[in-house]
Each structure stands twice: as C-alpha cells, then as structure tokens.
Specification:
The chain has about 220 residues and is α+β, with helices and mostly antiparallel strands. The protein folds into two domains: about 110 residues, no CATH class; about 110 residues, no CATH class. It has six helices and seven strands; from the N terminus they run αααββββββααβα. A hairpin with a 2-residue loop joins strand 4 and strand 5. The longest helix is centred in the C-terminal third of the chain and has 31 residues. The chain is elongated, with a radius of gyration of 26 Å.
Length: about 220
C-alpha cells in the first residue's frame, strides 16, 4: 500500500535507492525477521520487556549491518574511471540520476586514493585535492608529487584563497600530466529489483533459521 500510495511521487523523484527499504518487497522480509527475532528472544528470556528490548536492538543492528556493509555489494557495483576535471560543472556523475553512488574517489596514476580526509584545495575545486607552493613557480600535488608545469598565479591564489583562471588552467594541466583520475563506483537502477529480492531472501532466510532454532529449543527443552 505504501509503494502504491507513493508511486506518483517516486516517479517524479526518480531516485529509488533513497527509499529502498520502505518500498516494494523488502519490508515483508523485515517484518518476518522481526517477528521471528521477537519470538526467539521471548522463548529464551521468558520475560516480556527484556525480550522486546533485545529484539529491538537485534533488529536495528542487523538492519544497519545489511544497509551499510551488505546491500552495496550484493551485486557487483559498476565503476567509471575518467580524467579528473577540476572545473565546476565537470564532476563525474553516474549514467542515470537514480543510480546509487557508493563512492567518488580521486586516484593517482598508481591507483592510490588521494584528496581524502579533509585535504583542502585552493579555492574550491570539487575534487578536494591540495596544491601547495614549492618555490620558483612550481607546486606539489599532495599524494602525487611535483607538478611538471609551472604555476604563474600560484602566489595570488594562495593569498586570496580563490583560484583565478591562470591557476585553474595550470592545476588542470598538472592533474592531466600526472595521470590523476576520478573513479566513480555505483549501483545502477537496473540493479534495484535484484537487490530487493536478494535482501528479501536474506531476511526471510534469517527468519527461517530463527524458526528452526525455536523448534529445536522446544523439542530439546520438553524432550
């Protein structure tokens, strides 16, 4: 009913992964698993409130684990590797607006990630990489090395904190000549339904495992 009610809004938003666990078939898996977990907790603890607390905590823990570390890799994600463009408006993007972006990294020629953990660039380039002056009109690109070209406007950019066209041109030439690339990892919208069925199978399987444990426990207890 929720999926049907929101279907016109979801068609306009065209971003199915943002409401992945609130639509279609996976909520059935969550419900079955939550019920089985509650029954198991009640069977073992034999006290209502502690069993409810354990079931709630266990349900939340499993949901978070699957959402953060399992769902993104149930199907092999796709990758787009492209030249790094520092200009605003040339940020790598997945082929479809509704695709689920898992990571957007900047790597050097050896494939090592650079520009992460708060690195700051002069004047708002979108890659988050850091240039710093080396003297004599040269600059070092953090995590990569000395730029092979000169930066005629490096000092001005450093003082103002804002890039000028000459600095942007030199920075773009540097990353191009050093082989810096963007690597975009994503799940395409075509994987939406396979991911739905896979996650449903996970939670139904967990529920069946808990049900089997409950039957085993009862037979063992009253044998």
């Amino acid at each position: 009913m929720v999926t049907w009610w929101f279907s016109p809004i979801d068609r306009v938003n065209a971003d199915p992964f943002t409401v992945f666990d609130q639509r279609d078939v996976v909520p059935f898996g969550y419900a079955v698993f939550a019920f089985a977990l509650g029954v198991t907790a009640g069977l073992l603890l034999r006290r209502t409130l502690p069993a409810m607390a354990v079931a709630l905590a266990g349900f939340a823990a499993v949901r978070v684990t699957v959402r953060e570390w399992v769902r993104p890799y149930l199907l092999a994600p796709l990758r787009i590797t492209s030249a790094l463009w520092l200009s605003i408006g040339k940020v790598p993007a997945p082929p479809h607006p509704g695709d689920w972006v898992l990571s957007d990294l900047t790597v050097n020629a050896a494939g090592r990630v650079i520009g992460q953990d708060g690195a700051i660039s002069y004047g708002g380039t979108l890659s988050g990489i850091l240039f710093h002056p080396e003297g004599g009109g040269r600059a070092v690109l953090k995590g990569v090395g000395l730029c092979p070209n000169r930066f005629p406007a490096l000092a001005g950019a450093a003082r103002s904190g804002q890039p000028n066209p000459l600095f942007q041109q030199a920075a773009q030439e540097c990353v191009a000549r050093l082989g810096v690339r963007s690597v975009l990892t994503y799940q395409p919208t075509s994987h939406y339904w396979p991911l739905q069925w896979c996650e449903l199978a996970i939670f139904v399987g967990l529920a069946l495992a808990l049900a089997g444990f409950c039957f085993w426990w009862l037979r063992r207890r009253y044998a």
